[in-house]
Amino acid sequence: MLLTLSLVDGQDTATVGEWSPVLTWPYEAIHAHVLPTGKVMFWTRGDHSELWHPATNTVTS
Fold first, then answer.
1. pLDDT > 70: what percent of the chain?
2. pLDDT tens sequence across 28-43
């Protein structure tokens, strides 16, 4: 049996990124696209789309 273990030093989050806390939404997003603007277009059940603005944490129809 061969076991390989590698340790990764802490890396700068400005370089590698980081996860943010989980957001609670009153929506159930079925499908989503990140747009070139950084906004996220998502669809709830049915044919209804919404647009999430991450900078302000607001949603518009």
1. 85
2. 889 999 999 999 999 9
DSSP string of the chain, one letter each residue:
------------HHHH--PPPPPP-S---SEEEE-TTS-EEEE-SSS-EEEEETTTTEEE-
Altogether, the residues listed in the chain come to a count of 61
Residue 25: pLDDT band with limits 50, 70, 90: confident
Q: Give the Å distances, CA to CA, from 35 to 2, 12, 58, 59.
A: 45, 26, 15, 14
Quote the pTM value. Answer: 0.63
b (16+ CB within 10 A) / e for 16-39: eeeeeeeeeeeeeeeeeeeeeeee
